[in-house]
Sequence to fold (158 residues):
Amino acid sequence: MCEVRAARHTPPVHCPILRRRETWPGASPRKRYCLPARLADARQILDTPLLVFHDPCARFDWMAWKQWYQRLGLMRSSRQACLYFSQYAHVRNAVAQLAGIAIGRTPMVLPMRKSGQLQVVLPEHVADGPTYQIVTSSVVRPGVERFRPGWRRSWRGR
Fold:
């Protein structure tokens, strides 16, 4: 079984991590809001509309702008424009249409990063998210051990 676990959980030794999700502020490399390819200062986010996956605090606190503002040491202004979306696919589309800056997370936006539609604007502030791992019993079973290497290989490209 493949299971997603929160980053704060330490996997058992016999259940190695296959992939760790990452989250980060990201935007289109095209310059509608004068964002450089890499922000020199996190305060530049304050001048850019936020694209919000609503309501991330209810289920995905690690994708909430409130937590990112705390992490970056910023105070949110009530004057900053925010666009709220009920579907994460709409957030991705808004980023591609130059509507603002969003919290990206792998693997959801990996194709956009690879194609150049999305860039990480604060690379030094990439945060770990939940992990994917194969969860098995601590009892070694030959069938599971034969399956595990193929599963790992299939996850390398994701």
